[in-house]
Amino acid sequence: MELDGAPVTLEQLAALAIGNYGHFTTMRVERGGVRGLSLHLRRLVDDCATVFDAELDPDRVRHLVRRVLDRAGDPVTVRVTVFDPALTRDHPAAPAHPRLLVTRRPAAPDPPAPLRVRSSVYCREAPAVKHVALFGTLRRRREAQRAGFDDVLFVDGAARVCEGATWNVGFCAGERLLWPRAECLSGVTMRLLQGVEEPTSTVPITLADLSGMEAAFATNANAGVRPVAAIDSHRWAGEHPAVRRLAKRYAEIAPEPV
Questions:
Q1: Residue range(s) of every CATH 3.30.470.10 domain in the chain
Q2: CA 213 to CA 108: how far, in whole Å?
C-alpha cells in the first residue's frame, strides 16, 4: 500500500475513513497487463474531474501501479483510490489536490462460483461515478447475505434491473445478449464484452422479464464473467453455453501492459 509512491500514514488513511470522499478503480493484473487498462485510466481521469474538479495524469497512475506490482505474485487485484487527505468534511469546497492510494491483494479464484442474488430497491448516489461511498451498497449486501444469498442486485422503484453491488449484470435471450438500460456504473468488463460480442442490446429489463431469460451473468474486473444461478426465486439450471462462450471471449481479450 502506497500513497503517491510512499508509505501511507495512519493520519492520511484516517482522512479517507472519516471524510469518505473520493473515487477509485479496481483492476486484475495478469502477467503485467490489465484487460481494458485504457478504460480504467479514462475512468480515473473523468471521475477526478467530476469529484475534484482536477486533472489526473494517467501516466503517473501507471507508474505508481508498477511500483506496487514489483515482486508481487500473479495474478493480483490492484485498486487505485483518488482522494485528498487535506480536504475536510467542514470545508470540502477548498481547492483539491488529489493523491493516489495504490493497494494490491490476491486476485479472486478462477473460475468464480455462480452467484445467488436477492433484488433490492436501491440506486447508488451518483451511479455513473465509481466513488468510495459504499454504506448503502454494503448494507444491502449484508442484508442479502444474512438472508442466505451471495449478493444483492439493485432495481429501481419500477422493478427495473440496474446493477449488482460491485458488478454489472447481463442476460442471454436466444441469440441476443441483453444489458439493462438503467442508472448504473458503466463497468469496464461490460464495455469490453459489448465490443466483442454480437448481437448485443441495451434494453429496459424488469424482474418480471426474468422468466424469458435463458441465463444471467455478472461481470467485473476482478472475476471477469460469473454465472448467476438465481435472482430471488428465479433460478437457472447449470451454466449456460452462452455464458461459457462469453467467459472465453473475455479471456481472449489481450491485456494492455501496465
A1: 2-106
A2: 27
Question: Is-contact 55 48, C-beta < 8 A?
Answer: yes
CB 139 within 8 A of CB 105: no
Q: How far apart are CA 9 and CA 4, in angstroms?
A: 12
Condensed to tens digits (0 to 9), the pLDDT of residues 181-199 reads: 999 999 999 999 998 877 8
Q: What is the pLDDT of residues 43-83, one digit of tens each?
A: 999 999 999 999 999 999 999 999 999 877 789 999 999 99
Among residues 216, 239, 112, 226, which one has the least CA distance to residue 161?
216
Which CATH entry fits the domain spanning 2-106: 3.40.190.10, 3.10.150.10, 3.40.640.10, 3.30.470.10?
3.30.470.10
Rg of the chain over CA atoms, in angstroms?
19
Task: At 80, list the grid cell.
Answer: 487505485
Give the CATH number of domain 115-257: 3.20.10.10
Report the pLDDT value the prediction gives residue 108, as an integer from 0 to 100: 82
Question: Boundaries of CATH 3.20.10.10 in the chain?
Answer: 115-257
Phi, psi angles (nearest 5°) of residue 231: -125, 115
Residue with the three cell numbers 422468466: 211
pTM confidence score: 0.94
- Closest by CA position to 3, among listed 86, 75, 107: 86
H-type helices in the chain, by residue range?
A: 10-19, 37-52, 58-69, 135-146, 188-196, 241-251
Cα–Cα distance between 97 and 90 in angstroms, integer?
Answer: 16
The Cα–Cα gap between 55 and 163 comes to 28
% of residues, the chain, pLDDT over 90 = 86
Q: What is the mean pLDDT of the chain?
A: 94
